Amino acid sequence: MADTIQEAVTLALDEAPERNFRETVDLAVNLRDLDLNDPSNRVDESVVLPAGTGQETRIVVFAEGETAVRAAEVADEVLDGEDLADLGDDDDRAKDLADDTDFFVAEANLMQDIGRYLGTVLGPRGKMPTPLQPDDDVVETVNRMKNTVQLRSRDRRTFHTRVGAEDMSSEDISSNIDVIIRRLEADLEKGPLNIDGIYVKTTMGPAKEVPV
């Protein structure tokens, strides 16, 4: 499969028109034979890409004390319990933070307050934080999430995810796609039979089918 994926990626990169900005490389997945009105059938997975996303990933950490100090080394922003309460009183600021952030991480003991103050903002966006247990290394967790993408179909048969950037090698992008396809085939009820088609493209370029 790896060779056929790479062929599709190479075509997508070669046929992408010149642009004056750095394009992302995206994957479109079409599903079939699934009742997506049933939430249990929906795709909702975090996948760590072996070659990275090729893009900046914005991560915000809710933490206090030593964990907050360490998180500040790697996260884009660190917020404490007081900040959390302030966000709960400012709906517009909370929504802006949610929309501008790719992933949230939070100390487990703050999760209840996050649910209370931000649940209605983060929940519908699929951005509730990854809980950080006392033994977890916040630096390691944040660095891993910088290479993570979210696969989320919601109730739609077609969904998209980022798999790289146009200046990455076709080999690296292909390895990212291979990991995503393997995860989907393992998680979907009927495996490959639930996949109607997969396409790879740059932001503004033509879509090329990825054989599965």
Automatic annotation (TrEMBL):
CDD domains: Ribosomal_L1. GO terms for cellular component: ribonucleoprotein complex; ribosome. GO terms for molecular function: rRNA binding; tRNA binding. InterPro entries: Ribosomal_uL1, Ribosomal_uL1-like, Ribosomal_uL1/biogenesis, Ribosomal_uL1_3-a/b-sand, Ribosomal_uL1_arc, Ribosomal_uL1_CS. Keywords: Repressor, Ribonucleoprotein, Ribosomal protein, RNA-binding, rRNA-binding, Translation regulation, tRNA-binding. Pfam families: Ribosomal_L1. It comes from the Archaea. Protein L1 is also a translational repressor protein, it controls the translation of its operon by binding to its mRNA. Probably involved in E site tRNA release. Binds directly to 23S rRNA. Belongs to the universal ribosomal protein uL1 family. Part of the 50S ribosomal subunit. This is Large ribosomal subunit protein uL1.
